[in-house]
Design brief:
Elements lengths: L3 H7 L5 H8 L24 H15 L6 E5 L5 H8 L3 E6 L2 H11 L5 E5 L12 E7 L7 H14 E14 L7 H4 L4 H6 L7 H11 L2 E6 L1 H19 L2 H10 L8 H19 L1 E9 L9
Parallel strand pairs: 1-2, 1-4, 2-3, 4-5
Antiparallel strand pairs: 5-7, 6-7
Length: about 300
């Protein structure tokens, strides 16, 4: 897994892109979000609505219900774990960063059916068959190829027979992940998100099957990448002009903190992310452990 300090620093205001994103709606969640044309009006309120929608759809695939023991892997600030608790699950949110777990406990530690622990999801401290469900949303791209293989094996181990892992992640369109060198030549995106390569979808499917899972894949590229990238192009156009920057400052006054150098760095980062997104799929994997059938989607 990528160094935990690097991950923590990459998601802080030391990265000017995340500084901007914090002002336009990132808070309890740090994910791209799920966008549809009928819901685009929510964009005027920021990104939070779309981020919560992505979590909702991911949890719907998980199909966890009252009494299910659920591991929320890489829970971050804990909202997804709290939502599992609201669905009646006995949910444990884990994250490798103690600071994230402390924040999750502060925000949601008193919620019924919700608790938080520091743990490395590639080497879980739980007994075999301890959980009915495992959930991992937009985090495994940090792990590296061997870390992803280890997480799949660990999730299979801690699931009961008939249990389910829902793993939602960026996936590389090419079977050769090293082509990211040409897509992100200055490592702007890799530095921002703290990763080295993205798992090819084909290899994800193969490794999940090798771990023992029955695999179902859902392609969410359109609503998670293609549609929001149209919004990113609009933002990039605004960021590239003084008038556009002023419009953004009027809508989100906190952006007045950004210096001209910061705005130029945001423009460069948005350009790099648009190139990166064109090389990606976004995939929701529903991975079932053979055994007693489970109910739900």
């Amino acid at each position: 897994m990528a160094d935990r300090r690097r991950i923590a620093e990459s998601y802080s205001d030391t990265n000017v892109l995340f500084h901007l994103l914090r002002h336009v709606g990132w808070g309890d969640l740090v994910n791209v979000g799920y966008y549809t044309v009928p819901t685009l009006h929510h964009a005027f309120g920021g990104l939070g609505w779309f981020q919560r929608e992505l979590v909702r759809r991911s949890l719907d695939l998980l199909a966890g219900g009252p009494g299910d023991r659920v591991l929320d892997a890489c829970c971050g600030r804990g909202l997804s774990t709290a939502l599992l608790g609201q669905r009646g699950c006995d949910a444990v949110g884990v994250d490798v960063q103690p600071e994230q777990i402390a924040e999750a406990r502060r925000r949601f530690g008193d919620r019924p059916g919700t608790r938080f622990e520091v743990a490395d999801v590639t080497a879980l401290p739980y007994e075999p068959g301890a959980f009915d469900r495992v959930h991992c949303l937009e985090a495994a791209f940090h792990f590296g190829p061997e870390g992803r293989r280890a997480f799949l094996a660990e999730a299979f181990r801690v699931l009961r027979p008939g249990g389910r892992l829902v793993l939602v992640d960026f996936t590389w369109r090419s079977d050769d992940p090293s082509t990211i060198e040409s897509v992100d030549p200055n490592a702007i995106v890799r530095s921002a998100w703290c990763f080295d390569e993205v798992e090819p979808r084909s290899r994800y499917l193969t490794r999940a099957a090798e771990a023992g899972f029955t695999v179902t894949a859902h392609d969410w590229t359109g609503p998670v990448l293609e549609l929001p990238m149209r919004l990113v192009r609009l933002v990039q156009a605004l960021v590239g002009t003084q008038l556009g920057r002023q419009v953004l400052r009027l809508r989100w006054p906190g952006l007045r903190e950004l210096t001209p150098t910061d705005w130029d760095a945001v423009e460069e980062s948005l350009h790099a992310h648009l190139s990166w997104a064109r090389a990606l799929h976004y995939t929701a994997l529903v991975l079932d452990k053979p055994g007693e059938p489970i109910t739900g989607a």
